[in-house]
């Protein structure tokens, strides 16, 4: 399986029609505090789980373990989000290589990238912490 890239608008639309889905926000604690987090309705789960750990931005050694505690069904549709789509792609690819079958990377991230304005700037549901 390969990771599928979607814009934030495409991902939000697909999450609305996919019952078994989870958004995994892989940004750092600091980014959640400074920029806010995604909010979704009660049918969709959100997992805040850093892919890289500050201060040196090394890969979180317990990422898969923490994720698998929350998500034990390998068929769940997983939507990975970071600031601009780079770390989320790394995390989605890593998880795909461990057997999860439906992984998506939100290529414009939370704040935007060359692929689009991003979750927050597209006025998709979010809140400040």
UniProtKB/TrEMBL annotation:
Query: What organism is this sequence from?
Result: Candidatus Trichorickettsia mobilis
Q: Could you tell me which Pfam families the record lists for this protein?
A: Rhodanese
Endpoints of the signal sequence:
none
Q: Which SUPFAM superfamilies match?
A: Rhodanese/Cell cycle control phosphatase
Q: Which PROSITE patterns match?
A: RHODANESE_3
Name under which the protein is recorded: Rhodanese-like domain-containing protein
Task: Name the InterPro entries on file.
Answer: Rhodanese-like_dom (IPR001763), Rhodanese-like_dom_sf (IPR036873)
Give start and end of each Rhodanese domain.
Answer: 23-128
